[in-house]
Amino acid sequence: MCSTEKACSEKTPADTSPPPCKLLTILAGNPDADVTQLPPAINGDAGGKETDSVECSQAREMLMGYATSEHKLDDISRTLEQSCVKNKSGKGCHIKNDVMWRTLDRICE
Fold it and tell me: Which string of DSSP letters, residue by residue, matches 8-72?
């Protein structure tokens, strides 16, 4: 579940599947899902460009390459799920750049 009221919704409006940042939600619905092998989001950058952040599907793709252990996968999944913020347009979601940098610092230690 998202931690703020600005966080992205559990499901995208045009789709019934969770957005790409909702790895914990995906696992809750299907504990056998391999979240490291999820296909890229079809809608891409649906909400427009946010200058201080990374679109959620892009953030997931960037971080999953570092998910080399269960601990790192948990950290990445929790970060994506809890740090998701709706785009100003309301048509997509993103992760702030500073959150991405802190996450990369943690998982690359």
Answer: PPSS-TT-SSPPTT-HHHHHHH-TT--GGGPPPPSS-STT---TTEEEHHHHHHHHHTT--SHHH
Q: List, for residues 53-69, the tens digit of each pLDDT value.
A: 999 989 999 999 999 99
Reduced to 3 states (helix: H, G, I; strand: E, B; else coil), residue 59 is helix
- The CB-side HSE value for 55 (13 A sphere, CA atoms) comes to 16
Q: Whole-prediction pTM value?
A: 0.72
CB neighbours (10 Å) of residue 74?
Answer: 13
Could you give the angle at the alpha carbon of 65 between the alpha carbons of 68 and 80, nearest 5°? Answer: 95
55 touches 47 (CB < 8 A): yes
